[in-house]
Design a protein that fits this description.
globular; alpha+beta; HIT family, subunit A
Length: about 160
C-alpha cells in the first residue's frame, strides 16, 4: 500500500487554523499577495488560490468591492471578472495542461455558497480520470503540489501576461 502525505492539511482537518471574522474575500484582498495566496490583482477583481482546493490550481476570482451577486457588480466589474476567467484558463493551461475546466459561481447560501455575501467565481482545472479511488471510495482528494509552489508558479504566469 502507498502512503500519501499531506501534512499541510492537518490543521484544516482538525478544525484548527486561522479564523477569519467578517468577509473572507475582503480580508484576502487586504493581505500581502503571498499571505492571501493572491496570484493576480486587476483593476476591480483579483484571483487567489483556494486554500483547500479540489485540484492543483483551483482559483477563486472575486471583485475587490463587497458584492453579493453578479447583478450587484458594475458592468466593468463583471466584464473584468469574465476576462480574468478566460485569462485564468490560459494560465492554468500553460502551467498544468488540464483537459478541461469547471467554472462555478454560487450566489447565496441556499445555492451552496460557502461565502454567501461576496460573489466569487471558482475556476477549477480538470483532467480525464481525476476521480480516482481516493475521491470515490475515501471521499478524499489528493493534491500533489504544495500551495506555496502553486502560488509561485501561477503568480509568475499571471505576471508574464500583464
Amino acid at each position: 500500500m502507498e502512503s500519501l502525505y499531506t501534512p499541510w492539511r492537518a490543521a484544516y482537518l482538525a478544525g484548527e487554523g486561522e479564523i477569519v471574522t467578517g468577509c473572507l474575500f475582503c480580508a484576502l484582498a487586504g493581505r500581502r499577495d503571498e499571505d492571501g495566496l493572491i496570484v493576480h490583482r486587476g483593476v476591480s477583481v483579483f484571483a487567489a488560490l483556494n486554500r483547500y482546493p479540489y485540484t492543483n490550481g483551483h482559483l477563486m476570482l472575486a471583485p475587490f468591492a463587497h458584492r453579493r451577486s453578479l447583478s450587484a457588480m458594475s458592468a466593468a466589474e463583471r466584464h473584468e471578472l469574465v476576462d480574468l476567467a478566460a485569462t485564468s484558463e490560459e494560465v492554468l493551461t500553460e502551467a498544468y495542461r488540464p483537459h478541461g475546466f469547471n467554472h462555478g459561481l454560487n450566489i447565496g447560501r441556499s445555492a451552496g455558497a460557502g461565502v454567501a455575501d461576496h460573489a466569487h467565481l471558482h475556476v477549477v482545472p480538470r483532467w480525464e480520470g481525476d476521480t480516482n479511488f481516493m475521491t470515490v471510495l475515501g471521499a478524499t482528494r489528493t493534491i500533489p503540489e504544495e500551495l506555496s509552489f502553486t502560488w509561485e508558479k501561477l503568480a509568475a504566469a499571471f505576471a508574464r501576461r500583464s
